[in-house]
Amino acid sequence: MSSAEMAHDREAWAELIDLERLARWMDSRGLGTGAAIEEPETLGGGTQNILLRFRRAGRVHVLRRPPRRPRPESDEVMRREMKVLAALAGSDVPHPGFIAGEGDPAALGTAFYLMEPVAGFNPTQGLPPYHAGDPAVRRRMGEAMVDAIVALSRIDPDRVGLSDLGKLDGWVERQVPRWRAQLDGYAKFEGWSGLAALPDVDAICSWLEANRPATIRPGLIHGDFHLANVMFAPDAPELAAVVDWELATRGDPLLDLGWLTATWRDPAETEHRVAVTPWDGFPTLAEIVDRYLAATGRSAAEARWYSVLAPFKLGAILEGSHARACAGLTPRAIGDQLHSHTIALFDRALRRIDQPIV
């Protein structure tokens, strides 16, 4: 790293993370008591949250805290993440090891936690030669993605101290009204192109309501499971960790499968938004679903419902950026790009109503 890059790196966190206060807090937890904090550097990633890697008393730590301009719920998000990571300790779910955390913002200005560094890479940032050079390796990468959410689906939230994470009562009944209301709420943004500019929202919502599962098999959900939120081992086709647990909650784990199919490459689409190359070798959509169902005993009918819900939910979220861009609150180019993505996602939902994955 050049001197200019080092200076910019320091500017990214120095105003937000007081190393002396952090050292005192770590002393109170017996984490390298009295030693200096050395080699601080920020880590990149697919999140606005700040990640600071540093060394103390010979041990490497990664601090995670909310972004420079925290949202009202940012501290609660940090508290949720540290609780989930602590609960996953010793499980088969690949995750960053939790070291310690602080939910009281008085300690460092915001809630934060420390975790073990992850030796690995994110595939959306490019594949190393080992992974890029062999389709069989990439196939196993896709299988490892499925295996991770299978392992997560087997976690009993009550047994690991997560019985208060989210609200299970009425969870499945809330899904469609919640995300339809999200879409309808964008009408408050002046200039928004509206529902008429989107594929048939009424048809998607009607099908989802008419085919809603009568019950759910409750479990732990990551909530945003896709290729940008995992890290692979540098020299093997296995997952090193699933990251970004800020949306973790209780519900039906099939939503994670739906989210994966909402973000996986679909050969029926001419424009592919999966930012991983080369792609050949990765399992097909049907192979992903089949592997999950075989491992969990869930039904194709259940998986189909979530394969429609997930792209609808994701599109409803992304359309918010377009609505704000129409009102001049965010860059128009970004809003238009995400609007295009929403259209593709809603088309995907409609297609899966007529043509189930399996």
Key terms for this structure?
disordered N terminus, five-stranded antiparallel sheet, alpha+beta, two-stranded antiparallel sheet, single chain, 358 residues
How would you concisely characterize the structure shown here?
This protein has 358 residues and is an alpha+beta fold.
Give the helices and strands, then pairings.
Blueprint: H1 3-13, H2 19-28, E1 37-42, E2 50-56, E3 59-65, H3 74-87, E4 98-102, E5 112-115, H4 129-132, H5 135-153, H6 171-185, H7 201-210, E6 219-221, E7 230-232, E8 239-242, E9 249-251, H8 254-263, H9 285-296, H10 300-326, H11 332-354
Antiparallel strand pairs: 1-2, 2-3, 3-5, 4-5, 6-9, 7-8
Care to describe what's here?
By secondary structure, the chain is α+β, with helices and mostly antiparallel strands. Helices cover 43% and strands 12% of the residues. Helix 6 packs antiparallel against helix 7, helix 7 crosses helix 11 and helix 10 runs antiparallel to helix 11. The protein contains eleven helices and nine strands. Strands 1-2-3-5-4 form a five-stranded antiparallel β-sheet. A two-stranded antiparallel ribbon has the order 6-9. The protein has a two-stranded antiparallel sheet with strand order 7-8.
